[in-house]
Specification:
This protein has eight helices and 15 strands. The chain is of the alpha/beta class and 255 residues long. The protein binds beta-D-glucopyranose. Beta-D-glucopyranose (BGC) binds at residues 65-67, 75, 77-78, 104-106, 130, 134, 136, 150, 152, 162.
Amino acid sequence: MRMLGIDIGGSGIKGAPVDLTRGEFAEDRLRIDTPHSAEPGPVAEVLAQIVKHFDWTGPVGVTFPGVVIDGTTLSAANVSKKWVGLDARSLFADAVGHPVTLLNDADAAGMAEMRFGAGRGATGTVVLLTLGTGIGSALFTGGTLVPNTEFGHLEIHGKDAEERASARAREEHDLSWEKWAHRVSTYLAHLEKLILPSLIVVGGGVSRKADKFLPLIEGVRAEIVPATLQNTAGIVGAAMAAADAAPVARTRRPA
Ligand code: BGC
């Protein structure tokens, strides 16, 4: 089965049809720059462009970098504040002309890692953290997602964790791997005190350089592994969510 997944990020909006049996792209992905200041209308237009590019007719899964409840976007840490309280699912569905399933970006990445990547088969408490522009989180217990956790906004030393330990913080403050790993360790140790995970999956673009910082992480009991799907996870998870939401044809029971 194939489903179209689209991942909305602060710098790029990326989409591809996904082969849901293998958790892989069925065609090359399309990336379009996120319109300046990532406002709702222009982002919806990009979604429509992506759907048209793939001649897609059918449900679409879309990720958003903030809290999403019942299709309404409720936070916007790194995108325009116009998203807060918006019925983004309806906006997108009108723009693309098909039903849309909308979910948080880290939740989508986590779903993909749990089914096809580093979390496969893990049954305890698992947390996936995407260290990127912000810090996204996805929490699983017994393989089931607890949606919309926002562990990137835990307060550490009086600051939002994502201001100290995201990949953007490393770049903006020009931190060495050692210094940044120290910040990530402090963050993970704090999170661990609150949720006691057995496995922490570290995702986001920086997970490609996991060998540079994961060996430097200290003071954390849980097993820590890099994500394996890396930049396909959001799109694959979006497609999975759309498939889960699609109505299943039911056969009538005999009377
Ligand atoms: C947002 C999360 C999002 C993460 C990664 C955070 O700032 O609050 O909802 O998952 O960034 O995009």
